[in-house]
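Sanity check. The docking grid for zinc ion depends on where the pocket ends up, so I'm generating a full predicted complex first rather than guessing from homology. Inputs follow.
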Amino acid sequence: MTRTNLAYKVGAHVSTAKGVQNAVTNSANMSGNSFALFLKSQRQWTGRKYDKSEVDEFHDLCKEHKYSGKTDILPHGSYLINLASPDANTAYNSLKGFIDDLQRCELLGISKYNLHPGATVGYDKKKCIERLAANIDRGLEATNFVQVVLENMAGQGTTLGDLDDLAAIIDLVKNKERVGVCIDTCHTFAAGYDLRDEKSFNKFWKQFDKLIGYKYLAGIHLNDSKTPLNSNRDLHENIGYGFLGLEAFRLVMNKPELEGLPLILETPGEDDIRAEEVKLLEELIGKEADDEFVINKSQELQKLGEKNRKVEQEKMDKKKKTSKPEKQKPLERCLEDKHVLEQFEKDADKYVRERDMMSEIMKGEGDEKPKKRAKKVKEEIKEEEL
Ligand SMILES: [Zn+2]
Ligand SMILES: [Zn+2]
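Predicted complex below; grid placement will be based on this.
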C-alpha cells in the first residue's frame, strides 16, 4: 500500500510480536503515517532487554519507511503502572517499570511516551496527584529527552485523567518542557464531553485550551465508543459504528491544531480493518459535513453498528447510577515506608549514570547515528553492571 504525505498523520497501534522492529513494518503495511506500540508486555512490570539487532533494525526500518521518532511514534505505557499509587510496593514497581519504558523509548529514538495517569484507589486525590507529579519528574530526571504524554480517561472508578486532573498534574510537574497530553476520543465522550457535532466538539476543545492549552497537546487516540455519552466505560468501537459516529472524526480530520500530531487508532479487529480506517479518515480531510460521501458513509457505518449500540443503550438505561463514594481502605504498606524510599534512592543513582552515558554518546554523534549510539549505550551499561 502507498502512503501519502499528509498534514494529518493517521496510524494505528500495532503489534510487536517477534520483536519491537516489527511494529515499523506492521504500520507501513497498513499505510499508517504514525503508529503506537507497547514497549514490552503491557501486563508486566519488566520485560527482557531488547537485543542489539532489534534496536538497530528498528532504527533502519524507521529510516526506510520515513517515520520520525520525534513526531510519528507514540508508544503506550504498561497498564500496570500507577505512579499515583499509595501502596509502597505498587509505587516502587510502577516507578521502575515507568523508567524502564522511558529508557526503551530513548534507545529506539522515540521522543513521546503515552501513559495512563493512574488511580487513587480511594485515597486522597490531592496527595495522589502530588505523588504522581513527583514520580513523573523522577522519570524525566532519569532520562534525557523523552516527553511523558498523559492520556485523558473515561472517568471509570477512581481513575485519574479528567481535564482538571491533567491540568493539576502538569501544574505540579517541574519539567514542563517534557510533559504533554493525549486526548482519546472514546474516553473523552465516555467521560461526558459530547463531540458529535461542530458545536459540542468546539466546546470541548475550548475547555481543553482553557484548562490545559494546545501547547501541551502531543497526540490523539482515535476510537469510536461502544457505550453512550457519560457512560464512564472505556470500550473502543470501530470508527463510525459507535455512539460517536463519523461526524466527530470528520471534525478531527479538519482541525488545524491536530496537524502533525500522531493520530492513533486503537479500534477492535485485525490490522486490515484499521488499514481501511486509516484510508477512510484520510478521505475526510477537507470535506464538509454535508458532503455526499460523508453523509452516505456515516449512514452506512451507523447501520452496521446499530445492533451493538442498542444492546449497550439498554444496559445503560437499566443500570441505575449508584454514585457511592469508594471507601478509603487502609493499606498495610504505605509510601512513607522508609525501606522502599531508600531502595529507590539507590536505583536513582544508577538511572542518572545511565542517562549521562546516553547523553555523552548523543553529544558525540548527533542524531545521525542512533544505531551506533544504541550499541554503545548497551555495551557501557553492561560494563557498569559487572
Ligand atoms: Zn490508553
Ligand atoms: Zn487511548
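Relevant for the grid: The beta strands are 9-13, 35-36, 112-115, 147-151, 179-184, 217-222, 224-225, 236-237, 262-265.
Also worth noting: The two ends are 47 Å apart (CA to CA).
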